[in-house]
Amino acid sequence: MSERRPDVNLRQLEVFVRIHELGSFSRAAASLGLSQPTVSAHVRSLEEELGVRLFQREGRGIRVTAAGDRLYVPARRLVEERDRAIAAVMGEEGELHGDLDIAASSIPGSYIVPKFVAALCERHPAVRVTLSIGDSRSVARRVRDGGCEIGVVGSDPDRAVFDVTPAGEDRLVLVAPPGHPLAGRTVAPPRLIGERFVVRAGGSGSRDAAEGALPEDVAQGLVPVLVVDSNVSAREAVRAGVGLAFLSELAVREDLKRDVLARVRLRGVSIRRRFHVVLRQGRPPSDLARAFLDVVAEE
Fold it and tell me: For 147-173, b where at least 16 C-beta lie within 10 A, e where not — what string?
């Protein structure tokens, strides 16, 4: 007598895939329109049928097990095939449906990704996108660990871990409050030693780029008086007179035009950084991810 095959249904697999991609039972429940107890029940039934643990709870978060990682790609393909079958029967072949979760660092998340999303949704109106913002390191970590499929970062990603697609570039500019002694001037980098600075928290791609472009003695000679976790906070702190800051030109362009902030030019220093879309290597992109990458390549 052959062993009983596990009785697994597509709804269980869909719930599993969504948790794997969003990294959270509660976020998966919200995106599927289910209660969290219902989502937990689907996962519990799936684990019992398969005889393996798919997720391990760690504090307030979860970790995908090795068995969960092995299940993810074939499970996602089955769910996508179901969606394509339904679309074909309903006369909607070629129409993409579903939810795409994107994590992005602050500047591309605020100024670059929304344009990509607009183009994606114009082509595929049935697609829904969730965009979460973090620093570049946390975004890369989420993609690496399976918390989301797509990340957009402003630091150079590890190409041994990620598949990388260029997604535009930005320039960092040094800004000061109007009336500051350096406002509107062009100075040599050593002139910054001892100056009060507003800086981004560790993990920020813009902070890494700024510090990497300055001579080591200058970078170490800046006086960080305020550490913030967003470009908006940094910009407002400079406007309030806290100190100088290296900020994205995209973020301060209008403030510079209105003379709300003043630029300080550094002789011989130009700080450009490129944005990248990252997906974890070894994981074939979903149909939604491929559609997003197509938009990025064209835009």
Answer: bbbbbbbbbebeeeebbbbebbebebb
Angle between helices 287-298 and 113-123 (to 10 degrees): 120
Express as a percent the part of the chain with pLDDT over 70.
Answer: 96
In the prediction, which pLDDT does 1 show? 42
Sketch the domain layout of the chain as residue ranges: 1-91, 170-272
CA distance 25 to 53: 15
pTM for the whole structure: 0.69
* Integer Cα distance of 91 and 89 in angstroms: 6
Least confident of 88-92, 181-185, 271-275, 276-280: 88-92
- Cα–Cα dist 164/220, whole Å: 32
CATH code for the part of the protein at 1-91: 1.10.10.10
DSSP 3-state percent helix, strand, coil across the chain (nearest 5): 45, 25, 30
**pLDDT, average across residues 20-27:** 84
Mean pLDDT on 27-41: 88
**What is the gyration radius of the CA atoms in the chain, in angstroms?**
23
Q: Which residue has the tokens 């049928």?
A: 49
How far apart CA 161 and CA 83 sit, in angstroms, is 30
Class of domain 170-272: alpha beta
